[in-house]
């Protein structure tokens, strides 16, 4: 009860810009949407820390507001998040895919826990320095959790759908996967220029 009271009291100190946004107040209080320093730890990494209560890490096992609050997160299998040999991605105009991807990036409807990509990655938050490198590159969460040394943008979209969004990967030939991938590649380019 004290832990919950501490989280709720922390919500009072949330800046008005976050509190007035579409982000649920409880999530804003502890983490995925709170602005972070550029060298923030990956909140969903298996090695995110040993603290029993990690209110500023949305996937921290001690946080009642993060996706871990309800139980363990699934561990994505490489075969679920890396494109199968011979499969073909959806093809369309890049600008249309980026536009669709932006819409989906902000949509909690892709998850089973009301998280969106932007819940953790709003305005450049929640990325490690490796995100400045073009894909494919190492993503610590994918390496720590599933043993994937390097991953491309498409694989990372699929990975995040499974963990922390607690959903299923998208179909490999879907317009949605192509759109999210195109948008994530644009976010990465913008981030690298910072």
Task: Provide a descriptive summary of the structure in words.
This protein has helices spanning 2-12, 16-19, 25-30, 78-81, 94-105, 117-120, 140-146, 153-162, 175-192. By secondary structure, the chain is mainly alpha-helical. It has a single domain, classed as Cytochrome c-like domain (Cytochrome Bc1 Complex, Chain D, domain 2), CATH 1.10.760.10. Helix 5 crosses helix 9 (175-192). The longest helix has 18 residues, at 175-192. It is globular and about 35 Å long. Mean pLDDT is 74; it is low at 1-43 and 45-71.
Can you write the helix and strand succession as a string?
HHHHHHHHH
Oligomer: single chain
The biggest beta sheet, please? none
How much of the polypeptide forms β-strand, as a percent range?
under 5%
Number of helices: 9
Top-tier CATH class:
Mainly Alpha
Radius of gyration: 16 Å
Number of domains: 1
Q: Give the termini separation.
A: 41 Å
CATH architecture: Orthogonal Bundle
């Amino acid at each position: 009860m004290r832990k919950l009271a501490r989280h709720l009291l922390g919500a009072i100190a949330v800046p008005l810009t976050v509190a007035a946004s579409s982000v649920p107040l409880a999530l804003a209080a502890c983490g995925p949407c709170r602005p972070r320093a550029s060298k923030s730890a990956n909140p969903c990494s298996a090695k995110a820390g040993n603290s029993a209560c990690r209110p500023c890490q949305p996937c921290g096992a001690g946080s009642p507001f993060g996706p871990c609050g309800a139980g363990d997160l699934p561990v994505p299998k490489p075969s679920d998040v890396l494109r199968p040999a011979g499969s073909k991605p959806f093809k369309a105009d890049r600008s249309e895919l980026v536009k669709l991807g932006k819409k989906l990036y902000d949509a909690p409807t892709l998850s089973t826990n009301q998280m969106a990509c932007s819940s953790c990655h709003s305005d450049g938050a929640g990325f490690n320095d490796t995100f400045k490198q073009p894909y494919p590159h190492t993503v610590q969460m994918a390496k720590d959790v599933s043993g994937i040394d390097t991953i491309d943008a498409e694989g990372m979209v699929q990975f995040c759908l499974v963990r922390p969004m607690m959903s299923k990967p998208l179909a490999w030939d879907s317009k949605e996967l192509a759109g999210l991938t195109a948008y994530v590649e644009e976010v990465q380019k913008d981030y690298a220029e910072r």
